[in-house]
Amino acid sequence: MSTSDKIRLCLLIPRKKGMSEAEFHSHWANQHGPLVSDTLIKYGIIEYNQFHRIAHKDEAIGIPPHFDGIAELTFQKYEDMEAFYRDPFYLDKIRADEQKFIDFENIVFSAGKDVKVIEAGKFVHPGETGY
Q: Which residues form the EthD domain (predicted)?
């Protein structure tokens, strides 16, 4: 059992081949974010975060970066996430926009539930989680 029933979808996003980092980040933050917001809100999104990778040395953690950003979407329940991805506006407009800046052949995603371990600088692990 997790410590939350909410569903978090995490997408590791590589930019479309031939697109510069600056073009990718600008499009995702300034066009895609506003485009997707109303539809996400329609399906009860709790939180949508865009993590934009910053320039750093590969040696900092020992491996080169493979993704340009991470999207985190938190829904109240799995069915809300499914409904969002089936919405006609998503299928027609949002998906078309994603094709402009995302390399879909190399995107990685997973949906799951959070188990809090540390919150606000304090250990909050609930003990047995059921996993």
A: 16-104
